[in-house]
Write a structure and sequence with these properties.
Layout (H helix, E strand, L loop, with lengths): L5 H4 L2 H11 L10 H8 L6 H6 L1 H23 L17 E6 L6 E3 L4 E9 L5 E9 L6 E7 L2 E7 L3 E6 L6 H10 L1 E5 L4 H15 L10 H14 L24 E5 L4 H9 L5 E8 L2 E8 L9 E6 H10 L3 E5 L3 H6 L2 H12 L9 H5 L13 H14 L1 H16 L6 H10 L4 H6 L8 E3 L6 E3 L4 H11 L17 H6 L11 H6 L6 E4 L37
Antiparallel strand pairs: 1-8, 2-3, 3-4, 4-7, 5-6, 5-8, 9-10, 9-13, 10-11, 11-12, 13-16, 14-15
Helix pairs in contact: 2-7, 2-14, 6-16, 12-18, 14-15, 15-16
Length: 558
């Protein structure tokens, strides 16, 4: 199953719901906190236990679910490589709208029926009436989801007619407050049960066993590349020469290294956030020795947790063993002249090294314009339900990933996801509006990293790179007007601060004749559309869409 790792732990948002869709679920029954936790096999740990060691909790969960999914795959007759990666993530439901509490029907059309209406009688208990008319020959069943941020009902429709079902669980006061504004959220799966199972298994195959092994097996690498080709239209061709590692003397302070590991996680992130890398790092020297500095987490393929520096040669060895595809982007002469490596190094040592990975604001750096940042059928309405449901199952994960960011924006403390929704709404701030509030570099968050209780900065990989450039003076007088915590990978490598005039080394040209930069590691040829095209401007990256694949191009100012 997917290992959640902050940009590396994002996947829990998606797979929690996916597991429900193909499990032995009861129809017309509300799945709320306890049953959801049991159905998903989520470990029973306290929030403090989770915060102290999120990776170990997810390792336990992953190993248990891996065995279950292997059984499902065998029973379904699917072998490794037999699934189509183009169907990965197709199990994400489609938002249809909200069923109002005043009984006004929500009317729609589905692939199976020419007309469907859903209405709710908001009594005790709430009762739903679904009418399906004029069946088509296009499909066998519709599967509907009726939800609040704390519970979900699954309802299957196979024939014309009217059916009724009830919300058979108590509604909390917070749920009732939320419902009074929105009504019950109605969603539909994009296919029948077997299609959804196939999609889930296709998704899982992206990640397993790659997230549990030091290197990525060639068959899984190829499967991930096919996913990127079919889903993001990003075509990475095989390389004949895989290692073009520069000598340390040819790597300068401030140089950028972009990474893509074909392990499910990086390809998912690239597709979801709109980029051609899944991880970024920066080079700095300390006491004359070259290091690669980055924000990441420890894992089966990486030994160190948090913001760290690794000697260059050691990092190259680890990257190669981990099946990294790596590009090297040197700074331009102009940018290098403005970059104070001493100041950047001092900032890193005094303000960054040893901090945890930037879980607290990772979602907020990605989502600027909720109507234009999501991939596939995911949208703000589904996201609102999903993160609320996750909070009811795993409050530690919710606190780690979004509740701290929501609380920061509202000036509140320790509110749960649903209480945050209601507090925001009382101020005329919607769920989507909270993501539109730009993250600020100066904001700090309470962290329990390595069993410490500290208020610290939160930086994901590209944010650390940007902050290091900022500390070294790359942005000049614009420094106070650029919030690095709003950056994604695309924003970092699109900056026009890189060297495109110095001829590439002959080894780079031989390995990749048509690339404008050097790819130093990897079996697959990377590309970086928009590379070196964006001039730094005030408030850049704060209100930006994802863009359309494969280039993910964005408006001027992003």
């Amino acid at each position: 199953f997917i290992k959640m790792v902050a940009f590396k732990y994002l996947s829990v948002l998606t797979l929690a719901l996916a597991a429900l869709q193909v499990s032995a679920i009861k129809e017309n029954h509300v799945y709320a906190a306890t049953e959801l936790q049991s159905l998903l096999g989520w470990p029973k740990v306290t929030s403090s236990e989770f915060a102290a060691s999120p990776r170990s909790v997810f390792d336990r969960w992953t190993q248990d679910l891996k065995a279950q999914l292997q059984t499902v795959a065998i029973m379904s007759g699917y072998g490794l490589g037999a699934l189509d990666p183009a169907t990965a993530f197709d199990w994400i439901p489609i938002n249809l709208g909200d069923a109002a509490l005043d009984g006004t029907p929500l009317t729609l059309k589905s692939p199976c029926f020419e007309q469907v209406s859903i209405a709710v009688n908001y009594s005790q208990p709430p009762t739903f009436t679904l009418t399906a008319m004029r069946a088509t020959a296009n499909c066998e069943e519709d599967i509907y989801l009726v939800a609040t941020p704390a519970g979900i009902i699954f309802h299957k429709v196979t024939t014309d007619g009217t059916s009724q079902f009830v919300w058979d669980a108590p509604l909390s006061e917070a749920e009732r407050t939320w419902l009074s504004r929105t009504g019950f959220r109605i969603m539909r799966l994009s296919g029948d049960t077997q299609t959804m199972l196939t999609s889930l298994l296709a998704t899982v195959e992206l990640f397993l066993p790659a997230e549990l092994t030091k290197g990525v097996w060639p068959v899984i690498q190829a499967y991930n590349m096919e996913f990127l080709r079919k889903k993001a239209f990003y075509n990475l061709e095989p390389r004949n020469i895989t290692d073009v590692v520069p000598d340390s003397a040819d790597v300068k302070d401030g140089d950028f290294f972009g990474v893509l590991r074909p392990d499910g996680l990086d390809p998912m992130l690239a597709w979801a956030m709109g980029a051609h890398t899944g991880h970024t790092t920066i080079a700095l020297r300390f006491n004359g020795q070259l290091y690669i500095c980055e924000s990441t987490t420890d894992s089966a393929y990486w030994p160190t947790n948090g913001i760290q520096k690794t000697p260059y040669k050691q990092w190259i060895a680890q990257a190669k063993a981990a099946s990294f595809q790596v590009v090297h982007l040197p700074l331009s002469a102009e940018a290098r002249a403005s970059f104070n490596a001493t100041a950047a190094g001092e900032w890193f040592l005094n303000h960054a090294e040893g901090l945890p990975y930037g879980f607290a604001n990772m979602l907020f750096s990605w989502i600027d314009t909720p109507e234009a940042n999501y991939p596939g059928t995911l949208d703000a309405q589904i996201h609102e339900i999903l993160v609320g449901v996750v909070d009811s199952i795993a409050p530690g994960a919710a606190d780690l990933l979004w509740n701290r960011g929501f609380n920061q924006r509202l000036g509140t403390t320790n509110l749960t996801t649903l209480d945050l929704y209601n507090t925001a709404a009382s101020r005329n701030i919607s769920f989507a509006d909270m993501f539109k509030i730009p993250e600020q570099d100066e904001w700090k968050y309470l962290s329990h990293f390595e069993n410490k209780n500290e208020v610290v900065s939160s930086m994901v990989c590209d944010v650390l790179v940007c902050e290091t450039w900022k500390a070294g003076g790359i942005f000049g007088d614009l420094a106070d007007d650029i919030q690095c915590t709003e950056f994604t990978n695309w924003d970092a490598y699109a900056l026009n601060i890189f060297d495109t005039t110095t001829p590439r080394p002959a080894a780079c040209v031989e390995a990749d004749p048509d690339l404008p930069f050097c790819q130093i590691l990897g079996d697959w040829r990377m590309s970086l559309p928009a590379y070196n095209t964006r001039k730094p401007v005030a408030k850049m990256a704060q209100v930006c869409p994802r863009g359309s694949p494969p280039d993910f191009d964005k408006p001027i100012g992003c």
